[in-house]
Amino acid sequence: MFRETLLEIRERLEVSQPTMAEAMGMPFRTYQAIEGGVNPTRPVHLRAAYTASMQLALSAGRPEMMPADLQELVGELGDMMRRP
Predict the structure, then answer these.
(1) What CATH number did the domain enclosing 6 receive?
(2) I need a surface site. Which of 19, 35, 66, 69 has the fewest CB within 10 A?
């Protein structure tokens, strides 16, 4: 389940495996093994992918690149921060 989600996030961001690995703070070969199903995917990998998606979407100036559920959370957080 997490492996497919990880791939979906990377494809939505339109980045290569090396770029995603770097954004997640892990070696490329480790990322490649996780996405390829050689190494198990853990919840921590999904959290790192979400953090990476925020960073990459911000760098690209394209918040729509983030997963929809993350867009919603970020939007709610932004609303909270704007409240007096």
Answers:
(1) 1.10.260
(2) 69
Could you give the number of structural domains in the chain? 1
Range of the domain at 43: 2-82
**72 pLDDT tier (thresholds 50, 70, 90):** very high
Query: How far is Cα 4 from Cα 77, in angstroms, rounded to an integer?
Result: 27
- The distance between the two most distant Cα atoms of the chain, rounded to a whole number of Å, is 49
- Give the predicted TM-score (pTM) of the model: 0.86
